[in-house]
TrEMBL record:
Belongs to the FAM136 family. This is Protein FAM136A. Transmembrane segments: none annotated. It comes from the Eukaryota. It comes from Dermatophagoides farinae. GO terms for cellular component: cytoplasm. Pfam families: DUF842.
């Protein structure tokens, strides 16, 4: 099906972005988080609770970035889902008890074309969305987004 191909194209673009984000931003943050956590553990004068609190503080920035990315990607995928549901509604509104097999085939084709258009439109906005996400992560401006 062509709609499945369109879905694969969207997923490939998302994966490409997430890989790039991981390699250019997130891994650096993880290195800093682990180095910070290691320093917490090296403090022999600290209590278990102090070490745990220190380690928790070290991971805060990374967890906020992950949460922000997850929320943005969820919203992005919901946008695509809403578009596909709108396609479904448009076809459903045209159907009735007297719909013939030929009409059903035409409706299926129209639905497929509509879903492909949704995927194409989604792919078009991805570069801007991804630039925004990357910029916010680099500036640690999650609270403003």
């Amino acid at each position: 099906m062509m709609a499945e191909e369109a879905q694969k194209r969207v997923q490939a673009e998302v994966n490409k972005f997430l890989t790039n984000l991981d390699q250019t931003c997130l891994r650096k943050m993880q290195v800093q988080m682990f180095q910070c956590s290691a320093k917490c553990c090296e403090n022999n004068n600290a209590s278990m609770e102090q070490v745990a609190s220190c380690v928790e503080d070290c991971s805060s920035k990374f967890r906020k970035a992950q949460s922000y990315i997850s929320n943005e990607m969820s919203g992005f995928l919901k946008r695509l889902e809403r578009c596909a549901l709108q396609c479904q509604d448009q076809i459903h509104d045209q159907m009735n008890a007297d719909t013939t097999d030929d009409q059903m085939k035409r409706f299926e084709s129209q639905f497929e074309s509509c879903v492909i258009r949704c995927a194409d439109d989604t792919i078009k906005v991805m570069p801007d969305l991804f630039r925004k996400i990357k910029g916010i992560i680099e500036k640690e401006a999650y609270h403003k987004a």
